[in-house]
């Protein structure tokens, strides 16, 4: 395009076009790189007086498209001038009459995206343009068109939250398309944007939108359940409860989705409307209680346990044989498992799934949960690993899960954790052994230099020194035993011995640490002046450390003993 033509078309100076009197002038036929005509440019830069002059000189430019398929009407629909829209439509009507109706009607022309001018006006929120477009054509015919993304003009209005424009189309058009992108419809968008007054209007005019599924299989009810909107759930079920039993592509119903998100208020509404829906199973054969236990939704689990009619769900097994207890334990929600045991009536703690595992097996395979308070509580209430699970933990029977399965990932993670723990214990035990060995050869008070007892400990007759000697020897013995066990484990099996080593050596190392503290107290007491203040301060400081250490280690040590008793003697329990 001539640079002067481009500047004049995009400026307020229309003198260049006023000088033009020949409609066939080549100047009016020039286009830019994007194939925009001078009319496109004038409208794009809102030079409407220039645009009117161009239309009068060359009316056929009204139908010209640029490289993106946009007509001048698409441009003005985006810019938002209703008077210019009317001018373009009037010129198009004249051309249709002159050509005997063979010209394509301008209002229905689409660009490369399949958008009509009405789509563009909706997208940019130009209400006056929308009114002009609707009034100049059959509203139903224009409102039924969808673009290549599957979006109707009504959907775009709701999607951009132009609800006044959406209401205008609903009232003006006897029929319109409710379709949206990705298989959604207007009702899907309204539920997401929470516009209840408009939801009622859409349901009244087109009830079929309630049951329509998007590309993911979600109905508007699924979305309302996920968002926890009880009001919408009730509204959507007033025209029938069939959507409540619909599953999305993942096999989840609205009740399952509400349970997964912890939306108890929605669950209550669904169960009130559809009393038998609590028995509804997803594609995995799971109830909503399974889903809640798997997701760790405590409030939902409590809701089921408080009502006796849901008692049958507590021990219900899915297609893999897992109960809600299995799923809670497998996903690390040990508190949910305890809740099921505490409030559940007749819960089977030792139910096995199709792989032969109990819920306790899943807990034992998770190192971080093995020694937790809820796990110990489950143990006290009777939960036990299966014999197969106990053998797996001690390496007697090696399980071979399928490639990429969760069991295999869990086993690898556990082994890495134990190896890391083994190295830590090894370092601590080595340091204690080194310190105690040195202390044993350089005793407090030194050695005698002369006489019959030359080379003997100078303070050997003092009681505190004897306590030091016993404690130091005990610390050295326990720590060197831990080092020896770790050394042996590195030369045998990498699967079996690390489990046993880590199960025993932390206890030895823990007690050697306590013995080392006792040796320090007694050794210090032996060599310092017998001052009550100094002695008391040393003893109190060390005793506080010992107390805190034993307090946090006691339950852990007790549980380790119980665990290894089960693992070592499980093979003999089968008989």
From TrEMBL:
The chain crosses the membrane at residues 425-447, 467-489, 501-521, 527-550. It is found in: Membrane. PANTHER family: ANKYRIN REPEAT-CONTAINING PROTEIN ITN1-LIKE ISOFORM X1, PROTEIN PHOSPHATASE 1 REGULATORY SUBUNIT. GO terms for cellular component: plasma membrane. This is PGG domain-containing protein. ANK repeats lie at residues 68-100, 113-135, 216-248, 250-271, 284-307, 320-352. Keywords: ANK repeat, Membrane, Repeat, Transmembrane, Transmembrane helix. Signal peptide: none annotated. Its main location: membrane. It is a multi-pass membrane protein. Residues 418-527 form the PGG domain. It comes from the Eukaryota. It holds the Pfam family PGG. The keyword Mitochondrion does not apply.
């Amino acid at each position: 395009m001539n640079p002067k033509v481009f500047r004049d078309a995009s400026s307020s100076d229309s003198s260049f076009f006023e000088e033009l009197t020949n409609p066939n002038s080549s100047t009016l036929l020039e286009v830019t790189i994007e194939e925009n005509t001078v009319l496109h440019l004038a409208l794009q830069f809102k030079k409407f007086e220039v645009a009117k002059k161009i239309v009068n000189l060359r009316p056929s430019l009204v139908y010209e498209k640029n490289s993106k398929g946009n007509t001048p009407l698409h441009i003005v629909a985006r810019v938002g001038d209703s008077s210019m829209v009317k001018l373009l439509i009037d010129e198009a009507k004249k051309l249709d009459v002159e050509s005997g109706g063979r010209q394509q009607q301008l209002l229905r022309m689409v660009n490369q995206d399949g958008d009509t001018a009405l789509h563009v006006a909706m997208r940019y929120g130009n209400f006056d343009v929308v009114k002009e477009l609707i009034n100049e054509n059959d509203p139903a015919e224009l409102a039924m068109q969808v673009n290549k993304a599957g979006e109707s003009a009504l959907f775009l209005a709701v999607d951009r939250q132009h609800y006044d424009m959406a209401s205008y189309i609903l009232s003006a058009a006897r029929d319109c398309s409710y379709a949206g992108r990705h298989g959604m419809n207007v009702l899907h968008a309204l539920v997401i944007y929470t516009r209840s007054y408009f939801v009622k209007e859409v349901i009244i005019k087109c009830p079929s939108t309630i049951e329509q599924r998007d590309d993911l299989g979600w109905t508007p009810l699924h979305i309302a359940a996920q968002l926890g909107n009880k009001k919408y759930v009730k509204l959507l079920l007033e025209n029938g409860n069939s959507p409540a039993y619909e599953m999305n592509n993942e096999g989840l119903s609205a009740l399952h989705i509400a349970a997964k998100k912890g939306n108890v208020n929605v669950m209550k509404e669904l169960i009130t409307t559809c009393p038998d829906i609590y028995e509804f199973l997803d594609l995995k054969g799971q109830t909503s209680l399974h889903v809640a236990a798997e997701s760790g939704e405590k409030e939902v689990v409590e809701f089921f346990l408080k009502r006796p009619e849901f008692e049958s769900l507590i021990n219900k097994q899915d297609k893999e044989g897992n109960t809600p207890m299995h799923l809670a334990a497998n996903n690390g929600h040990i508190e949910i498992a305890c809740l099921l045991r505490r409030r559940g009536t007749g819960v089977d703690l030792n139910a096995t799934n199709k792989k032969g595992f109990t819920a306790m097996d899943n807990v034992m395979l998770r190192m971080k949960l093995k020694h937790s308070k809820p796990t110990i509580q489950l143990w006290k209430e009777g939960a036990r690993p299966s014999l197969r699970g106990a053998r797996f933990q001690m390496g007697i029977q090696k399980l071979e899960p399928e490639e990429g399965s969760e069991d295999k990932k869990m086993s690898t993670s556990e082994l890495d954790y134990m190896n890391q723990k083994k190295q830590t214990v090894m370092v601590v035990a080595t340091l204690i052994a080194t310190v105690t060995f040195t202390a044993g050869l350089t005793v407090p008070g030194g050695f005698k230099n002369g006489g019959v007892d030359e080379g003997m400990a100078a303070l050997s007759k003092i009681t505190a020194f004897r306590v030091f000697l016993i404690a130091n020897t005990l610390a050295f013995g326990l720590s060197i035993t831990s080092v020896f066990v770790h050394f042996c484990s590195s030369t045998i099996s990498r699967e079996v011995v690390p489990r046993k080593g880590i199960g025993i050596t932390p206890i030895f190392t823990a007690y050697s640490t306590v013995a080392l503290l006792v040796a320090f107290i007694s050794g210090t007491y032996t060599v310092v002046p017998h001052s009550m203040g100094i002695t008391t301060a040393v003893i109190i400081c060390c005793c506080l450390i010992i107390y805190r250490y034993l307090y946090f280690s006691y339950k852990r040590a007790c549980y380790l003993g119980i665990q290894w008793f089960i693992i070592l003697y499980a093979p003999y329990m089968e008989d």
